[in-house]
Amino acid sequence: MRIRAAVLEEFGKPLVIDEVDLVEPEAGEVLVRLASCGVCHTDAYTASGVDPTGYAPCVLGHEGAGVVERVGDGVTMVRPGDHVVTLFAPECGECIHCRSSRTNRCIAIRDPQNAGYLPDGTTRLFRGGEPLRHFMGCSTFAEYTVMPQIALAVVNPEAPLDGCAPFACGLATGIGAALYTAQVQPGATAAVFGCGLVGLGAVIGARLAGAERIIALDLSEERLAEARRHGATDTRVADADTVAWIREQTGGYGADYTFEATGNVKVMGQAVEAAREAWGLATMCGVAGRGEQLEIIPRFLITGRRVTGSSFGGVKGRTQLPGLVDRWLAGEFDAMALVSHRLTLDQVNEGFELMEAQNGIRSVIQFS
Questions:
Q1: Averaged over 237-242, what is the pLDDT?
Q2: Which regions of the chain does DSSP assign to beta strands (E)?
Q3: Spatial distance between the Cα atoms of 42 and 248, rounded to a whole number of angstroms
């Protein structure tokens, strides 16, 4: 079938909106009609060329939501008409990682997915007879996509799909970092560094977990206002004195939990230093630049602080993400408020510009 898609032809250049061919799903695969797709920093990171694992040409996009149109042979996890959220972090349910409660890092299709292919090592996307690779196994900057069934989460059909799209990456990453990775305890103090979509998700997650105090830090007063809207009890414009201020606000000890959501290694260092001596946990959610390193003073660790990373918030996509959507529908948080711009596919490069300017929280492409 012929579809319109945003193609990354050359690193560092704008995406090209073009007609491409999408082949019908094979065994274990699903054809999804996209309704909405978020414009995420990961897409921009790859498009810029600084991602050492990036590849071109490909169809970008990974933060999608849509409706199942058709399924290939052997598909049992979804059926036509299901409303789904795309998962760059699949969940096969059978590999050693899926069977463990300690991680969400499914390894069933990792190698072909990282290379830009579907599980059988081939592509369903073509242009002029030449193959186009799939981005993160998703390629959701397109009207339709073909994905493995293990990379789709079936969600409540009452949930607006433009609000569902951010759950496919940024929002679930932040909420999950607090609920699943850090496992914030009731009555705790949490500090969130960076109040973009991931950071605001961490604020929401900390509140859902019952944190008594949630400190939000950002360079933007507008984003701090958003943090207060979603549950932050204290906010501050970040500066060189941020760590000292957090310690002062917490009796000189630091926060029980800190979350870094900027990708800046200096801020990551602040998140470690601001964690409470004896049991503080610093969770890294941001993606640092190529070749950058996080330096940690060993004394921070031997006095009890711990540091961990969080991939997709530790969320097991097929089994846990639908529950997060249900909590949104139950009124526990406002996912729609995080969608700041609605664009067409032709405006995808404008979405990157809005993100670079930190204009709004999340731009969402709408296909219907």
A1: 96
A2: 2-8, 16-22, 29-38, 58-59, 63-71, 83-86, 125-127, 130-134, 144-148, 152-154, 189-193, 213-218, 234-237, 257-260, 281-284, 306-309, 339-343, 362-366
A3: 35
Give pLDDT, residue 291.
85
Class of CATH domain 2-168+334-366: alpha beta
Active-site hit among 37, 92, 138, 164: 92
The region, left, alpha or beta by phi > 0 then psi within -120 to 50, assigned to residue 12 is left
Extract the tokens encoding 210.
């019952």
339's CB contacts (< 8 A; 6+ apart) are 162, 163, 165, 166, 361, 362, 364
Tokens standing for residue 339: 């969608």
Could you give the residue range(s) of every CATH 3.90.180.10 domain in the chain?
2-168+334-366
**Res 53 pLDDT > 90:** no
Q: Tell me the torsion sign for CA atoms 157, 333, 236, 210.
A: negative
For residue 195, indicate whether it is catalytic: no
41 is catalytic: yes
- Token pair 């079936």: residue: 154
User: Active-site residue 164, yes or no?
Assistant: no
Average pLDDT, the chain: 96
Whether 76 is catalytic is no
Q: Greatest CA span in the chain, whole angstroms?
A: 65
Cα 7 to Cα 58: distance, rounded to the nearest angstrom: 6
Report the CATH number of the 174-310 domain.
Answer: 3.40.50.720
Q: Can you tell me the distance from the alpha carbon of 137 to that of 175, in angstroms, rounded to the nearest whole number? A: 23
Every domain of the chain with CATH number 3.40.50.720 lies at: 174-310
What is the pLDDT averaged over residues 170-198? 98
Clarify whether 37 is annotated catalytic: no
Q: Catalytic pick from 29, 41, 91, 181?
A: 41
Q: Is 306 exposed, middle or buried (0-12, 13-18, 19+ CB in 10 A)?
A: middle
For residue 76 the two structure tokens come to 């049992």
Cβ atoms within 10 Å of 80's Cβ, excluding its own: 12
b/e map 160-183, b = 16+ CB within 10 Å: bbbbbbbbbbbbbbbbbbbbbbbe
Q: How many whole angstroms from its chain centre is CA 335?
A: 14
